[in-house]
Amino acid sequence: MDINEFIEKFAEIFEDTDRAEFQADTKFKELDEWSSIMALNVIAMVDDEYDVLLKGDDIRGSETITQLFEIVKSRK
Amino acid sequence: MAFFKVGNVAVKGISACVSKNTEENLSLPFYSSLEEAQKMIFATGIQRRHITPKNLTASDLGFKASEKLLDSLGWEKSSVDLLAVCTQNPDYINHPDSFVIHDKLGLGENTMCLDFFHGCPGWVTSLSSVCSMIQGGMIRRAVLIAGDTVTRDNDPSNKETRPLFGEAVTATALEFQENAPEMFFNSGTLSSEGKALILKNGGYKNPYNFETLKYDLDRKAGKLSASEVDDKMDSMDVFSFAISKVPKAVKKLCAEFAVNIENIDFFTFHQANKLILENIAKRLKICIDRVPMSLKNYGNTTSASIPLTLVSECGKILSNSHKRHIVCGFGTGLSWGAAYFETENIVCPDVVEI
Q1: What CATH number is given to the structural domain containing A41?
Q2: Exposed/middle/buried for residue B224 (C-beta within 10 Å: 0-12, 13-18, 19+)
Q3: Chain B environment of A39 (Cβ under 8 Å)
């Protein structure tokens, strides 16, 4: 699993946020476009692309994109 | 895996009843901007919901729905052998709602009453039980009532639940019919993960005391801040559960009973929200046109949502043609139930508004 590919797929979910704002250490919940709906889109993307089913606690427990990436990676 | 099939039972009609009173999601008090409300409506697909006024209960809606159904079918009351009710909002905590509705309908002493206590998957689960009872041919006619007045238990200041839930009660008529096409069922349970949806107080485990009663009354009146409320639905967990379990349940049903997914006319899922239904459709690789949705005008109507959607979105078509259906209810438990059945020229009166 590649972190850059993960960031790319993560960024694709967002419509109004500039691609440059998505970095490994981006605190995604602080983005203006972040919402409870976006959280569901992230869960769907991870299930689609990585066949890993995230739970609410995984999203709540992650601050940066890297932290989320590590959770997904550990369950592959 | 609980798979089973039922023969000799036909769905004869479906009806639904809602209150005339609606709540528009665009004008909910907690959105900071029109844009925020519009985004929520776009993602959930829910514009408005029918909310039953306090002087009416689920049994009133169930009575109206079944009265309309019996009239439309021309079924004599004395011909109903079984009245089944699936609700989580009975009139009384110690008196099954089927007796209340039996009395309102004026049914006779030869009608058996049966209750199911279940939420969103409840219509499919109770349908499977009722159909199993009919298939022997002794019970020939049954009416299955399903639905809730769910918003009464919810916190009106909760931005996650209030825009979603609406209220409706449905009635489904089932009849013994030799050589009717077989119905297939598949149900599953994941009880260890169902605790997020539990209302903790007021049952026999945690009977109300002054403190918990006050807490619940304040919560239902929207007087508590988000940090004071501890029993919140985890929408992320529900989403995760739904998009993974529902497509699998449908695929397993089709595999077990050799159902060709291409031959299905309507895939009617529990109306949780648009985002969930779109994701389920995508995972099943089916066109969204084959997935009826009543979300726009009714929202998530718990155990009524599948039969309500069949009435409100497909009623005209179902009343003059033969259709093959797959349905799947999911949620409460956590549990799920998928079913395959066929309908032919069934009675589907317009949704009754009272």
Answers
A1: 1.10.1200.10
A2: middle
A3: 236
